[in-house]
Amino acid sequence: MKHKHYDLIVAWANGARIEWRSKQYTSNQWYPCNNPSWDDIAEYRLKQKPDVVKYLICGLKSWVEVDDQVGHECIKIVIDGTGRLKSAEVL
User: Fold this and answer.
1) β-strands 52-58, 63-66: how paired?
2) Which range marks the domain in which residue 38 is found?
3) 87 vs 80: CA distance, rounded Å
4) What pTM was computed for the model?
5) What pLDDT sits at residue 60?
6) N or C terminus of the chain with fewer C-beta within 10 Å?
7) Number of domains in the chain
8) Are residues 10 and 40 in the same domain?
9) Range name among 50-54, 57-61, 84-88 with the lowest pLDDT average
10) C-alpha–C-alpha distance, residues 13 and 31, integer Å
């Protein structure tokens, strides 16, 4: 039988960064974990990348990414740390 954290252990051994949080406390805070002990009293995950916010305006034949909302009607999209669309909003 595989260890409960087998996939994370393999990822960590291959250089992935791991985060942990205690199951005993109500805090949702995740902490960097350079040397995980793989205890059952903790939860582990791959380090999450921050959300990315992009603004898009409609060009002649495609969408154009701009640095900020520039007074034009545009779309604001938020991409989570896994690369998936988190939200989209017409401004």
Assistant:
1) antiparallel
2) 6-46
3) 9
4) 0.56
5) 67
6) N
7) 2
8) yes
9) 57-61
10) 18
